[in-house]
Write a structure and sequence with these properties.
The protein is α+β, with helices and mostly antiparallel strands. The strands form five sheets. Strands 1, 6, 9, 10, 11 and 13 form a six-stranded mixed beta sheet that branches. Strands 2, 5, 7, 8, 12 and 14 form a six-stranded antiparallel beta sheet that branches. β7 and β8 form a beta hairpin. α4 packs across α11 and α7 packs across α9. The longest helix is centred in the last third of the chain and has 19 residues.
Length: 390
């Protein structure tokens, strides 16, 4: 006989990895920036990115053998680009991947990158369903799609649900660009930060924002105010491909960002990670631009449109940013023994590009996410968690 499903009380208490939860007409919308930061943001790209729940999961304990989650996703459609794959939900039971699924339908956000416009088309909620689970008491996490804004509508199970147990692992707070957000990763548990966190035995709070690692003061304040045992920031690629600032502004902006983080985390291990290898921007400044010439065959690439001659006047490239970040960290570390630096090319460098090239010249694919995650667990987290007591 089939046990009827009961509706669980879906509250913010069941969420991990979100800094804020907004109640909407549909249900709960997890955010990765707090309301104060969102109020100070005027950029639609960042607003979209922070509402995409990279690293956010619904976490609970239960004996349920069937779990259903109703959500209202927002799917992205890019004008002139091939359709994007459906976002995946990863079911993790007692720390192991136990299932995957998608929610069809939902809202649609049509983005025209050349015109800089967004068009929102309303849609209806859908359901992701997992069955055949053990009837033993277990820890369950549903990792939400890292690349789809996701409103949580209802949670149903065939056994009672209780909140997950308190975390006993070090909490790792990370900020970065679309690569940290998980662009082109296979699923939410296989973005490189999620993989690194799993391998390193830490609890992830992922503040990687596609197009949004721009040294915004409100992001630094959000990091300052978020409890964490380990903190890392990956800086560079967005500053270059947006052509956001020159060296004169970049250096004090980095100092200010780190100063703000240190106001809330004065002695936590803090790692500054410079950009991964990205040949199009190594020596050529931004802005970056999409190249749609291969769109008919399903391939869109990115290119740098700046003039290398302007580097002498302070325009930024990945190479000049790496040099400056190394200098800044060395200078600050004289008074801050818990501050560390990692050259991003140790995570993904020239040999890696030859073996695993960037499909669109900016973003790593799923196999490269795995390589970066494994290396960061060793080179980044492995060094930082020593001496951290919980």
């Amino acid at each position: 006989m089939t046990t009827p499903l009961m509706t669980a009380d879906l509250t913010a208490e069941l969420l991990r990895g979100a800094l804020d939860v907004e109640r909407t007409p549909a249900g709960l919308l997890p955010h990765r920036l707090p309301a104060r930061a969102r109020a100070q943001n005027t950029d639609g790209q960042l607003a979209m990115a922070e509402s995409q729940p990279a690293g956010v999961r619904v976490a609970f304990r239960t004996r349920a053998t069937t779990v259903e989650l109703d959500t209202l996703p927002t799917k992205r459609v890019y004008v002139g680009a091939p359709p994007r794959p459906e976002g995946l939900y990863d079911l993790v039971v007692d720390g192991r991947l136990a299932g995957q699924g998608s929610v069809h339908g939902g809202h649609t956000l049509t983005i025209d990158m050349s015109a800089g416009t967004f068009e929102h088309t309303p849609g209806a909620p859908g359901t992701v369903r997992f069955t055949g689970l053990s009837d033993a008491m277990k820890d369950v996490e549903i990792w939400l799609p890292h690349n789809e804004t996701t409103e949580l509508v209802a949670l149903r199970t065939d056994a009672p649900v209780e909140p997950a147990r308190a975390v006993r692992r070090p909490v790792w707070l990370h900020h970065g660009s679309s690569i940290s957000h998980g662009s082109d990763a296979a699923s939410p548990t296989t973005t490189w930060p999620a993989l690194a966190a799993s391998l390193g035995g830490v609890e992830l709070i992922n503040l990687g924002f596609g197009g949004g690692a721009l040294l915004d003061p409100f992001t630094a304040r959000a990091m300052r105010d978020t409890p964490a045992d380990i903190v890392s920031v990956k800086i560079g690629i967005n500053v270059v491909n947006y052509d956001l600032m020159r060296m004169r502004a970049f250096t004090p902006a980095v100092h200010g960002f780190l100063d703000t983080i240190r106001d809330g985390h004065p002695t936590a291990p803090l790692l500054v990670v410079s950009p991964l290898l990205c040949p199009v921007h190594e020596d050529t400044p931004g802005p970056g631009a999409a190249d749609f010439r291969g769109a008919d065959s399903g391939r869109i690439t990115f290119k740098a449109t700046g003039d290398p001659a302007e580097v002498a006047q302070g325009k930024l490239t990945l190479r000049t940013i790496r040099d400056e970040l190394a200098r800044i960290v060395k200078q600050r570390a004289a008074d801050d023994p818990h501050l560390h630096h990692l050259d991003g090319r140790e995570l993904y460098g020239e040999a890696d590009y030859a073996e695993l090239p960037l499909p669109d010249e900016i973003h790593p694919d799923a196999a490269t996410h795995r390589r970066i995650g494994e290396r960061f667990a060793d080179l980044g987290l492995g060094a930082l968690i020593k001496g951290v007591s919980i």
